[in-house]
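Sharing a chain and its predicted structure for anyone who wants a worked example. Both blocks are below, sequence first, tokens second.
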Amino acid sequence: MEVVNSIGRRKTAVARVYIREGKGNIVINKRDYKAYFPVPQLQYVVTQPLATLNALEKYDIKVNLDGGGIKGQAEALRMAIARALIKINAEDRSSLKKNGFLTRDPREVERKKPGRPKARKRFQFSKR
């Protein structure tokens, strides 16, 4: 099997994934994924697509992660892994889609407007 690559995004985070057959190593920006995501909940989010297909020990994954915060990066990585797994085997699409791993979350941070302290917040109104 050759290397399969895909991309996943969430907020401003971008994950570029390269998957090949291996022993289950996940390397993010030249670090192990457990060192990159020390919180167990985020480690779970990253491995969800692999666990759904019972393929945790089947593929080696190399990741370039950029932008965003730690949660956005984890969810972008989850989407990229799911997309790559579909390129490997198209029959897995229904189970991954049912769990919501292929849906791009469109929510972004709203821009700050002029004359306001934040996007929607207003300065205190004074009638007199």
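Comments welcome. The two ends are 74 Å apart (CA to CA).
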